[in-house]
Amino acid sequence: MSDLQLTETSIRNGVWHGVVSGGEGMPQIDVRHLDKDVPDVALDEIEGGWDLRIPIPAEAISDGVHTFVIADRVNGHVLGDFTLIAGEALGDDIRSEVELLRAELDMLKRAFRRHCVETS
Fold first, then answer.
1. DSSP string covering 16-59, please?
2. Is the sign of the CA dihedral 12, 60, 27, 75 positive or negative?
3. Which H or E run includes 92?
4. What contacts 79, CB < 8 A, 6 or more positions away?
5. Please, which residues have CB within 8 angstroms of residue 87's CB and are 6 or more apart in sequence?
6. How confident is the model at residue 91 (pLDDT cuts 50, 70, 90)?
7. How many CB atoms are located within 10 Å of the residue 92 CB?
8. Distance, CA of 120 to CA of 107 (rounded, Å)
9. 4 alpha-carbon distance from chain centroid
10. Separation CA 90–CA 86 (nearest Å)
């Protein structure tokens, strides 16, 4: 379990904004999209926590459902996520939930493999 808490604040100009609070020192944040690291994630200290900025890659702004998973890099605990849906109106579509499950499953697989390597 992570001591960190994540609060979404907004998405503006292609950048997702949130606040990370809790824990000690600068948090180590991992953001993944399609099982790849999202580059240029920024953290700046603010009163009461850390301002988190995640630039949304241009390739994620396309038709379909795109899920970003935000995790504590130290222990792999998922702090939150956000989903972009573009193209045909999807309404209450289950595809975004399935995409989130896939992203979390990929993260669990990596953690399990890392655990197996470390304990063998």
1. EEEEEE-SSSS--EEEEETTEEPTT-EEEEETTEEEEEEEPPGG
2. positive
3. none
4. 2, 4, 5, 6, 20, 29, 70, 71, 72
5. 62, 63, 64
6. low
7. 5
8. 20
9. 13
10. 8
Q: Which two tokens stand for residue 117?
A: 């390597």
- pLDDT grade for 120, boundaries at 50, 70 and 90: confident
Burial 19-39 (b: 16+ CB within 10 A, else e): ebeebeeebebbbbbeeeebe
Query: 41 is written with which tokens?
Result: 């994630």
Contact 60, 69 (CB under 8 A): no
Secondary structure of residue 72 in the 3-state scheme: strand
Amino acid (1-letter code) at residue 1: M
The pTM (predicted TM-score) of the whole model is 0.75
- The answer to whether the Cα torsion of 20, 21, 25, 29 is positive or negative is negative
CB contact at 8 A, 57 and 33: yes
In this prediction, residue 92 carries a pLDDT of: 55
- Distance, in Å, from the CA atom of 3 to the CA atom of 93, rounded to the nearest integer, reads 32
